[in-house]
Amino acid sequence: MKLPPITVYLDTIVRINHLPVSDSGQWFFYQGMLFLSRRKWWADFGTRHATHEGLDIGIFKNRSGNREWLDSSARVPVMASGTVINVCDDFLGRSVIVRHCSNKQSRQVSVYSHLKVPGTISPGKKVDPGDIVGTIADTTGKKSGIHCHLHISLMEIAQQIPDPKITWQVMGEPDPEMVKLFNPMV
Ligand SMILES: [Zn+2]
After folding, report:
1. What domains are defined for the chain?
2. Which residue from 100, 114, 143, 176 lies 20 to 30 Å from 72 (Cα-Cα)?
3. Where is the M23ase beta-sheet core domain (predicted)?
4. How far is the CA of 155 from the centre of ligand 1 (A)?
5. What is the whole-number distance in angstroms between the Cα of residue 42 and the centre of ligand 1?
């Protein structure tokens, strides 16, 4: 997939939210936050029901060198220009799916999950890099005890699946014939 490197995207999150980091690249990831991990990084730190389809972004190092979590005021930018093709529910909030390019067989998308999404973000909306598609959902009161975080996924999805059908039913345990996952860290 041809999208800007993840470091550029993480720097955009820092800039847009005025995060008090001392330097760029000051992010921390538990193993369970990484692409294809089978570990949980919350609750009992047990096994996920499926491998992780993306990257969880939630912890940065502040100017004192301490780890700090993003909170529900954090605004979520898109990483590249494209068009919103669907907004669907996920288990912690809502997900916004942005198409960046397409051909006859498939289209490449980025997915931003566990958000609170304003009504202005809906299918057909054109977006540019850094445009805000929502804020991180407040999950502090949920039973799961999962900290506020942003999940991103990069996927190539077959055209046989129409835009409105692209939900976590399709993306969560993807059929390799229809959905190809990419590592956002590469
Ligand atoms: Zn995730």
Report:
1. 1-186 (2.70.70.10)
2. 100
3. 74-156
4. 14
5. 11
